[in-house]
């Protein structure tokens, strides 16, 4: 192997790949035999995985819409049955591959099939010893959030004509809040890791390491289910948060079942309710009513269906009965059925029994675990909910069933009363918003009564545990905060509590830089890290190596800046910092590095023979050669190595750029009245955004 | 040759192992330290010239500069700074060096207002709607204290654990970049007493906090010179900022604070650009400093008689008593200092720029036309109009950017490297973000070679370069 020239291996790859491509082009429909055959080619040619992956990606993008789904099934079959290295190569471009296919298909059945496919990629391969998901979360999650945002955006757009008043400056150009299909840039599998550490570990292992540290900002902020607010003092903010939580859960549901017009209706109605409350915060009895409704709804939410549900699959590819995957080939084409965990699980229990009395804590733990697909009888469940640890299997199953049910009786009445009470006059008031809060919206099927709305809500809302509203109040500094509205009058009076919040309430001060920390454990831990950071920094600044010519870095491009998660390096652990910076970054070859061996500050690129110099990496806190990779045991420019490998990265990043330009174009359409707008211009620029991966060495 | 009178903030105090380019400070004069006791809610106002040593140390109590708290017993070098050390609780300062003016003042009602504003923004963040936290536009004439206000509320927000996105739309004074830039940065690390928002990333370790900005180039001194270009860039920046906030829940909740040049206070254009900003950034709070007319006009336009969902509150914010006119000489020194910092760093983090000599043929340079030649492309550029040959490549002649061949007129100019390729069309060149800046050290027309001072040892590849009239030519950056 080592003796073979890279060119040689490329030509070998191109033969195999073109065979693969030919077979792929023959795939016109969901033909399990053909898909299995293609999978076998891929399995037997892992040394050409990169070329095959590229052929497959290109085919999925280029082929007719009706053939995209079968081709995606080929991808699915390969990653599930062969795995590494295909997961790595296909993971890189998965965002654009998937989003383009999704976007080019208007057929609801096909899209639903794609949705289901995506869900299975978040799970381990059923029955596999490997418990990692098919694709790492940071490959799948951007796709999911893009889909959710896109679908939400579609829904909101449907509502917009009603809500946006005419004329005025504000309506000329509103920046997109959910601006289009491809707003989330893809987060490809991190590449530098395995290049940096050599080839002992498989790419997927390393990618996996990086992946599991990925911060998930949305989830960090999710509130606990608002089940316990029933007897709390009424706070309009809490009610608002609960409404947001409902919306958020409905959005998730909507993402899962985008063609369910009922979900759309409910979501738009809840959005109306939210707007009403926002526009004129209710008080007194109205507030109590809203709160009760929201609380009752929230408490009555059924659990999510099992995370990889038996797909409500289009008829064309679903086998009539759940079967073990990979049946022996039949003499006629059989549809391919993606493997899902559901094949190994019980269907979700019926949701019809009355709600048992559970403490809120137990309930939310249960919901959380159910949302994670835990059976109540699993050890994890028993550990997590100690109260249930001695329960029998049957009891646990009953509990699980019961969690699903909701108290319905008086919520419907409350909601109806509320709608009649005229507590939302604002909805039809000055800004000409015509809609009555609970009238059916544009996309709605037959207008639904409030009672049926409630029932629908109960049947569609997943549990509160995972998808609640972002907690808008940071953990610290909550206690003494004054509430100050936007008003001129509020500016004048001196509020010592504001000074205290910036000084006394953060009594733990760094004597080097004056930075303050809270007096709790978190604050102390942060301060310890911070002092450690000062120490390390001072040490490094004193290092004679440091003086030898630092330089200004290039500024980042838009894509990188958008994806960058800002953090304070002085209080962040190195692991978290690296995860934050690298996980969201598209790694081009110039971002790869090799740690400089001790004492080695210069190296000659083994490919282009130009000199390379080491530089200091703040992230790694070590001297490294940037834009470097190991090539035949020597350090070379990563860009040179990439050139030789003729990587698929180029096309992947081009596709990503196209995706970005799609987002820009989408945003553009929404504000077409903006002067100087030119849709095509954006595209031209967007296509360049990915060019960062191709910087030539000077 | 050293540059007298042009030392940078923080420069020249600590002897550095690496010679700092242009860092020649006046020979250290033995200064007598003096002490100043400030009662609660008072401030120490000072104007320290560039090149003048001026140090402040907090001996006791607590104090802040533009919202950034001073660490006890640390010496801060405030050369080239005009500002006020404010104390809520009272403090004792030790002051060394000479300032053009310095005095203590108790008329600090503005500080109470500003802090209340911080409290308001915190409330808005706590109660943030799904579309995000407070998005604040700060407007007013020049020298009214807008930048000080923005920096203060940003510093307090960071202290409260937020990540506000700060946007600078004043091309005369760069933020984390040389002049001629428009900047957006999500600020997560505590601000720095001497360096404000910190410094943009460098290759080595730093003591000063690092901020990663997104930079656009607007190579004109005033928004009114090319309003169409300015607005296009605002649109582009708003798109990037909006996308970023969608990616980062903390930043989205923390909101946006936008600093603007006084030129936007322009009733003749019917406040066209302000309207544009309000809609592009979806502004939900406008702060007006220092102009009653502007306040009234904006209140009428955005606030009065509007439906609740449509109304944008406009608040009058007091200008700080200590604001001083920053005259043309000072502003030029400030720009020079920013330019030099970009290439050479500061005393704590000195940088080595790199020289690149490149053939004309390998360069794709666009000239950002000045307003005077917008209608007539054959008109030259400044005093050197005979020195360049317009080369209408891919750009239409009526565009704002035209491809030109290098000429001696470019010597001493700042050139922006855009992320877009050299072959891009005019709008792409206009909208593309900035990868870095080059200083034109030399143009050899005979040998058809150009020598640049670049921040980075690597070449920048096949990218569009933009040459504009702003910032002004600096003849002596290298000498
Ligand atoms: Zn510190
Ligand atoms: Zn090389």
From TrEMBL, chain A:
Gene3D superfamilies, sorted: 1.25.40.90
Domain VHS as annotated: residue spans: 22-133
GO biological process, one term: mRNA 3'-end processing
GO CC term, one of those recorded: cytoplasm
Region (Disordered): 309-328, 663-698
PROSITE patterns, per database record: CID, VHS
CDD domains tied to this protein: CID_Pcf11 (cd16982)
Domain CID, chain residue ranges per copy: 12-151
GO MF annotation terms: mRNA binding; phosphatidylinositol binding; RNA polymerase II complex binding; ubiquitin binding
Known partners and oligomeric status: Component of the ESCRT-0 complex composed of HSE1 and VPS27.
Protein name (record): CID domain-containing protein
UniProtKB/TrEMBL annotation, chain B:
Subcellular locations according to the entry: Nucleus
GO molecular function, one term: polynucleotide 5'-hydroxyl-kinase activity
InterPro entries: Clp1, Clp1/Grc3, Clp1_C, Clp1_C_sf, Clp1_N, Clp1_N_sf, CLP1_P, P-loop_NTPase
Matching Gene3D superfamilies: Clp1, DNA binding domain, P-loop containing nucleotide triphosphate hydrolases, Pre-mRNA cleavage complex subunit Clp1, C-terminal domain
Domain Clp1 N-terminal, chain residue ranges per copy: 38-128
Residue span, Clp1 C-terminal domain: 351-472
HAMAP family with a match to the protein in the record: Clp1
Function: Polynucleotide 5'-kinase involved in rRNA processing.
Similarity remark: Belongs to the Clp1 family. Clp1 subfamily.
Listed name of the protein: Polynucleotide 5'-hydroxyl-kinase GRC3
Taxonomic source organism: Oleoguttula mirabilis
């Amino acid at each position: 192997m080592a003796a073979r020239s890279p060119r040689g291996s490329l030509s070998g790859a191109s033969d195999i790949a073109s065979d693969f491509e030919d077979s792929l082009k023959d795939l016109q429909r969901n033909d399990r035999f053909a898909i299995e055959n293609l999978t076998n080619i891929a399995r037997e040619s892992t040394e050409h995985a990169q070329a095959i992956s590229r052929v497959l990606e290109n085919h999925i993008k280029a082929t007719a819409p009706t053939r995209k789904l079968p081709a995606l099934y080929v991808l699915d079959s390969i990653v599930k049955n062969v795995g590494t290295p295909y997961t790595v190569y296909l993971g890189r471009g998965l965002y654009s591959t998937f989003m383009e296919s999704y976007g080019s298909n208007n057929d609801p059945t096909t899209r639903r099939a794609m949705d289901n496919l995506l869900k299975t990629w978040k799970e381990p391969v059923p029955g596999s010893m490997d418990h990692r998901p098919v694709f790492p979360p940071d490959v799948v999650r951007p796709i999911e959030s893009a889909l959710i945002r896109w679908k939400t955006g579609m829904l909101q757009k449907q509502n917009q004509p009603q809500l946006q008043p005419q004329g005025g400056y504000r309506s000329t150009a509103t920046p997109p809040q959910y601006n289009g299909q491809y707003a989330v840039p893809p987060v490809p599998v991190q590449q530098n890791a395995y290049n940096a550490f050599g080839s002992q570990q498989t790419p997927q292992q390393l990618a996996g390491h990086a992946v599991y540290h990925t911060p998930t900002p949305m989830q960090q902020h999710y509130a606990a289910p608002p089940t316990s607010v029933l007897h709390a003092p009424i706070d309009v903010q809490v009610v608002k948060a609960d409404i947001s939580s409902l919306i958020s859960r409905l959005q998730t549901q909507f993402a899962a079942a985008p063609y369910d017009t009922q979900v759309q209706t409910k979501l738009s109605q809840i959005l109306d309710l939210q707007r009403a409350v926002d526009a004129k915060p209710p008080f007194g009895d109205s507030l109590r009513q809203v709160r009760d409704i929201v609380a009752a709804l929230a408490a009555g939410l059924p659990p999510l269906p099992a995370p990889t549900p038996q797909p409500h699959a289009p008829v064309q590819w679903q086998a009539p009965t759940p079967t073990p995957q990979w049946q022996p080939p039949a003499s006629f084409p059989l549809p391919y059925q993606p493997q899902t965990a559901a094949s190994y699980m019980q269907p979700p229990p019926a949701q019809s029994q009355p709600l048992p009395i559970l403490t809120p804590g137990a309930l939310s733990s249960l919901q959380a675990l159910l949302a994670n697909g835990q059976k109540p009888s699993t050890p994890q469940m028993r550990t997590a909910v100690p109260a249930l640890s001695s329960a029998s299997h049957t009891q646990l199953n009953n509990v699980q069933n019961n969690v699903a049910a909701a108290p319905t009786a008086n919520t419907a009445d409350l909601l109806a009363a509320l709608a009649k009470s005229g507590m939302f006059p604002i909805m039809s008031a000055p800004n000409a918003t015509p809609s009555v809060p609970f009238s059916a919206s544009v996309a709605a099927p037959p207008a639904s009564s409030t009672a049926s709305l409630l029932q629908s809500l109960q049947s569609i809302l997943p549990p509160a545990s995972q998808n609640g509203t972002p907690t808008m109040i940071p953990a610290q500094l909550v206690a003494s905060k004054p509430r100050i509205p936007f008003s001129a009058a509020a500016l004048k009076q001196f509020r010592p509590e504001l000074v205290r919040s910036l000084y006394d309430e953060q009594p733990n001060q760094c004597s080097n830089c004056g930075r303050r920390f809270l007096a709790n454990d978190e604050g102390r831990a942060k301060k310890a890290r911070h002092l450690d950071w000062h120490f390390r920094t001072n040490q490094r600044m004193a290092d004679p190596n440091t003086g030898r010519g630092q330089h200004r870095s290039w500024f980042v491009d838009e894509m990188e800046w958008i994806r960058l998660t800002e953090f304070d390096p002085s209080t962040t652990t190195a692991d978290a910092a690296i995860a934050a910076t690298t996980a969201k970054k598209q790694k081009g070859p110039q971002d790869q590095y090799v740690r400089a061996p001790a004492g080695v500050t210069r190296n000659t690129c083994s490919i282009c023979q130009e000199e390379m110099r080491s530089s200091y990496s703040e992230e790694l806190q070590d001297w490294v050669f940037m834009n470097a990779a190991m090539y035949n045991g020597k350090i070379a420019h990563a860009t040179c190595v990439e050139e030789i490998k003729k990587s698929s990265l180029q096309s992947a990043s081009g596709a990503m750029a196209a995706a970005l330009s799609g987002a820009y174009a989408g945003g553009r359409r929404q504000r077409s009245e903006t002067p100087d707008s030119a849709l095509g211009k954006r595209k031209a620029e967007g296509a360049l955004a990915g060019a960062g991966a191709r910087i030539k060495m000077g | 040759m050293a540059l007298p009178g042009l030392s940078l903030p923080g420069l020249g105090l600590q002897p550095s192992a690496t010679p700092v380019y242009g860092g020649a400070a006046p020979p250290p004069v033995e200064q007598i330290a003096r002490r100043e006791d400030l009662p609660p809610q008072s401030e120490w106002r000072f104007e320290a010239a560039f090149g003048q040593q001026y140090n402040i140390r907090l001996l006791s109590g607590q104090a802040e500069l533009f919202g950034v708290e001073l660490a006890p017993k640390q010496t801060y070098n405030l050369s080239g700074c005009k500002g006020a050390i404010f104390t809520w609780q009272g403090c004792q300062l030790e002051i060394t060096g000479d300032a053009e003016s310095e005095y203590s003042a108790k008329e600090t009602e503005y500080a109470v207002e500003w802090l209340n504003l911080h409290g308001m923004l915190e409330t808005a963040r706590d109660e943030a709607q799904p579309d995000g936290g407070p998005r604040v536009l700060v407007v007013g004439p020049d020298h009214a204290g807008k930048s000080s206000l923005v920096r203060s509320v940003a510093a307090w927000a960071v202290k409260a654990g937020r990540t506000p996105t700060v946007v600078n739309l004043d091309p005369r004074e760069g933020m984390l970049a040389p002049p001629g830039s428009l900047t957006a940065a999500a600020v997560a690390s505590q601000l720095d007493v001497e360096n404000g928002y910190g410094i943009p990333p460098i290759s080595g370790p730093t003591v000063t906090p690092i901020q990663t900005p997104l930079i656009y180039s607007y190579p004109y001194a005033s928004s009114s010179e090319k309003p169409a270009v300015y607005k296009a860039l605002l649109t582009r920046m708003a798109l990037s900022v909006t996308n970023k906030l969608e990616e980062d829940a903390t930043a989205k909740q923390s909101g946006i604070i936008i600093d603007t040049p006084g030129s936007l206070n322009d009733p003749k254009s019917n406040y066209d650009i302000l309207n544009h900003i309000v809609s592009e950034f979806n502004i939900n709070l406008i702060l007006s400093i220092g102009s009653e007319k502007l306040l009234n006009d904006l209140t009428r336009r955005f606030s009065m008689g509007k439906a609740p969902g449509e109304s944008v509150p406009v608040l009058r914010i007091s200008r700080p008593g200590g604001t001083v006119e920053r005259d043309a000489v000072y502003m030029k020194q400030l720009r020079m200092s920013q330019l030099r910092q970009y290439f050479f760093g500061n005393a704590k983090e000195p940088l080595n720029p790199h020289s690149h000599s490149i053939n004309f043929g390998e360069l794709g340079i666009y000239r950002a036309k000045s307003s005077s030649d917008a209608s007539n492309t054959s008109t030259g550029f400044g005093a050197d109009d005979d020195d360049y040959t317009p080369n209408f490549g891919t750009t239409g002649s009526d565009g704002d950017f035209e491809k030109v061949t290098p000429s001696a007129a470019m010597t001493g100019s700042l050139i922006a490297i855009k992320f877009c390729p050299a072959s891009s069309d005019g709008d792409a060149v206009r909208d593309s973000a900035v990868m870095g800046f080059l200083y034109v050290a030399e143009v050899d027309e005979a040998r058809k070679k150009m020598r640049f001072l670049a921040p980075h040892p690597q070449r920048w590849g096949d990218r569009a370069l933009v040459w504009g009239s702003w910032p002004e030519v600096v003849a002596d950056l290298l000498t």
